[in-house]
Amino acid sequence: MQQVATGPRPSLRRAARPLLRGLGVAVLAGAAVFRPAAGAGAAVRHVVEYGPLPTGPISGACEVEFDRRGRLWVEQYLAGQFARMDPKTGRFTEFNTPMPLSVPGGEELGQDGAIWSTEVTGNSLLRIDPDSGSMRELPLPWAGALSTTALGLPLHTGLGLANDISKGADGAMWFTLGGLNAVGRVDMATHRMTKYRLPTAAGAEQALFGIIKPGPGRTMVTDMPLENKVYSIDVDTKAVKAYTMPTPLSFPLGVTTGPDGAIWVTEERAMKLARINPATGKIAEYPLLGVHGLLSGLLNGVSIGNPLPIPGPIVTGSDGRLYFPLNFAGSVGLGNRMASFDPATHKVVTYATPSSLSSPCDINNEQAGSIWFAELTANKVGRLIIG
């Protein structure tokens, strides 16, 4: 475990975001066996922590993103801030969003070298200069409810509810619009925004947990948890495909393109992984709930946490395995494990964080040999070393 110095501490800005949700029923048959990292593997794959962040203990640290100089940016959605961490020194510098209570959502390094994010309650996108930390708001041109121009206030709201943002194969950035039954696109040259409607119903909870990532080929994939569906959209033709999860009420959350070219999905309430064949639309599910999965969190090591294998966002590591946090904070929280899944063998291995009840949140795979993530409850940054 690594403790590091922190930068100056500004005032805490709080925001509200639901942290608890009901837990669905999972199918036990054919469940994968969870194996805590042990032996020689444990010497290679283990978790190192940095922090805590200066604003705490409830800053809402969740997603992390690297800029072009290798500095790590940490989204703090409860504090309305971003923290910039130097991985070499472990020092944090924090920057406030222009609007208080903005609930910053997902973040992504843009093609222009800036960090792009969303303001869930601010009905805006954010463009962050990674050197100065200055932020420019780009209001969504839809559903604005409170005008800063007219009232001279730093507050603005709307129903767009953009929660996540990611690069597309067309050179634009794509983002979720859960409150408008749509996904959005922002042109990097003109900053012009366009929205594309999805055949789904909107909902605040759905919006707050909407994730969008590059899909197979020239597509983007996004989850619609309350609809129990995953959608793909072609960035050129804008053609939309819908995939319904086989397990009812599974709450599909994390989406990514796996090393096999398939769409991989974490089903949070069903406690499963799902693989979507984009060519045929066929979906295979891999249950994670089993005796070993339930007990390993309590019986392995000193660090403890919620033992249920509730998967969150998912990425592909540089070793070809799929990685995801367990006990995602959106459902019940207080988990303390990361997990890997081998697409070839279907073997699942779990890795405990040094801090108990740490609640690993969103994750980043951009650095070869590591999976980076923020710990919501521990208010720290975690690094899973994967060799």
Task: Record keyword descriptors for this entry.
mainly beta; 5-stranded mixed β-sheet; 6% helix; globular; disordered N terminus
What does this structure look like?
With 387 residues, the chain is mainly β. Helix content is 6%, strand content 37%. The protein is built from 4 helices and 29 strands. The protein has helices spanning 39-44, 148-151, 204-208, 291-299; strands spanning 34-36, 46-50, 61-66, 72-76, 81-85, 92-96, 104-109, 115-119, 124-128, 135-139, 165-167, 173-177, 182-186, 193-197, 212-214, 219-224, 229-234, 240-244, 252-257, 263-267, 272-276, 283-287, 315-316, 322-325, 337-341, 348-352, 360-364, 370-375, 380-385. Strand 20 (263-267) and strand 21 form a beta hairpin.
Strand content: 35-45%
Task: Give the radius of gyration.
Answer: 19 Å
Main sheet? Answer: 5 strands, mixed
Low-confidence stretches: 1-34, 38-43, 291-299
Structural class: mainly beta
Strand order of the largest sheet: 1-26-25-24-23
Shape: globular
Residue share in helix: under 10%
Give a brief rundown of this model.
The protein is built from four helices and 29 strands. By secondary structure, the protein is mostly beta strands.
Topology readout:
Blueprint: E1 34-36, H1 39-44, E2 46-50, E3 61-66, E4 72-76, E5 81-85, E6 92-96, E7 104-109, E8 115-119, E9 124-128, E10 135-139, H2 148-151, E11 165-167, E12 173-177, E13 182-186, E14 193-197, H3 204-208, E15 212-214, E16 219-224, E17 229-234, E18 240-244, E19 252-257, E20 263-267, E21 272-276, E22 283-287, H4 291-299, E23 315-316, E24 322-325, E25 337-341, E26 348-352, E27 360-364, E28 370-375, E29 380-385
Parallel strand pairs: 1-26
Antiparallel strand pairs: 2-29, 3-4, 4-5, 5-6, 7-8, 8-9, 9-10, 11-12, 12-13, 13-14, 15-16, 16-17, 17-18, 19-20, 20-21, 21-22, 23-24, 24-25, 25-26, 27-28, 28-29
